[in-house]
Specification:
Elements lengths: L1 E7 L6 H14 L4 E7 L6 H11 L3 E6 L5 H11 L4 E4 L9 H11 L4 E6 L7 H18 L6 E8 H8 L8 H7 L4 E6 L13 H15 L2 H30 L6 H34 L6 E4 L3
Helix pairs in contact: 5-8, 9-10
The structure holds uridine-5'-diphosphate and magnesium ion.
Length: 304
């Protein structure tokens, strides 16, 4: 059986359509399936719509979070609840073409364990957004070791891969990268990002920046090493200035040297602060991990 995992946050308008569209496509392709909606603490009637659909279509199941935990958590809750031999993660807004699920499933039947949906383009995005996204994916690609610029959360995972992901006890898991990082026999399927069918994007600029920082820190400690490099540079500059100062002192031409001192003070001061900030950021992430809080809290499901 195929489990389709659909994270939904304030998607009341689109739930009925998403459920019927995906259900129909999979029925026609004669793929045994379940549709698993994860209500990520929506403030609207998303959960009511999900329970309605679960009453009408028997392949629909729902899980409801106690509050908003973020898409990443919703995906992991879906993976944990899914009963299928393979799982597909797809957005609720139908931006990921559901017909592709069939193609992905056929590839799984041929023995591929991970089928990655890659965007053939990034859809409509403003210039600044595009630039920010590109920088983020460049950093991520560098630290993960493969191209992430077209990666998305739209992918199929075999039960084996799902279990591996579920057994990782990382809290700040970045699904998109982690699912490639685990390896397994994988293949890519290209798709075109569509326009959102209803509602608005659930990501504010601030939430995207937070998302980017969390994911960068969960995959690379490069920013911390940056501090060391800055430290070395400052040390070299300091050494040169000190030698110059000493030479002048012995020559008897020592200047008041006020400017040099001030400049050095500023640089060292700022590097120290930046360094501490970066270290503090990582410590806060370590703190989050060691607290060992659950990734999400389930309030209710449609299974009872
Ligand atoms: N989503 C979620 N929790 C959140 C934000 C988003 O479950 O906190 C879901 C949302 O309902 C949708 C998917 O994640 O199914 C992608 O969100 P969206 O379409 O807003 O992002 P975009 O397509 O603009 O990147
Ligand atoms: Mg979307």
């Amino acid at each position: 059986m195929l489990s389709v995992i659909i994270p939904a946050y304030n998607e009341e308008e689109i739930i009925p359509k998403t459920a019927s569209v995906i259900d129909k496509i999979l029925d026609e392709a004669q793929i045994p399936h379940e549709l698993l909606f994860i209500n990520d603490g929506s403030g609207d009637h998303t959960w009511d719509r999900i329970t309605e659909q679960a009453g009408m279509i028997d392949t629909v199941r729902g899980v409801c979070f106690s509050r908003n935990f973020g898409k990443e958590s919703a995906i992991f809750a879906g993976l944990a609840t899914a009963r299928g031999d393979c799982c597909v993660v797809i957005d609720c807004d139908l931006q990921h073409p559901p017909e592709k699920i069939v193609e992905m499933y056929r590839l799984w039947e041929q023995g591929y364990e991970i089928v990655e949906g890659v965007k053939s383009d990034r859809g409509k995005e403003s210039g600044l957004h595009r630039f920010a996204a590109r920088s983020f994916y460049n950093i991520m690609s560098g630290s993960v070791g493969f191209d992430m610029s077209r990666a998305s959360d739209f992918k199929l995972l075999d039960r084996k891969a799902v279990n591996v992901l579920l057994n990782m006890n990382e809290k700040n898991a970045f699904f998109r990268a982690l699912s490639s990082w685990i390896g397994f026999k994988s293949i890519e399927v290209e798709y075109e990002v569509r326009e959102r069918e209803a509602g608005v994007s659930k990501w504010s600029t601030l939430s995207l920046v937070k998302y980017a920082l969390t994911n960068i820190s969960s995959f690379t400690s490069a920013p911390m090493q940056l501090v060391t490099i800055l430290g070395i540079i400052v040390f070299v500059v300091g050494l040169a200035t000190s030698i110059e100062a000493l030479v002048r002192f012995f020559q008897g031409t020592a200047q008041a040297g006020f400017t040099t001192v001030i400049i050095l003070q500023c640089f060292i001061g700022s590097f120290t602060m930046i360094g501490l900030g970066i270290i503090g950021f990582y410590i806060s992430k370590i703190y989050d991990e060691v607290k060992g809080r659950p990734r999400y809290i389930i309030d209710k499901t449609t299974d009872e």
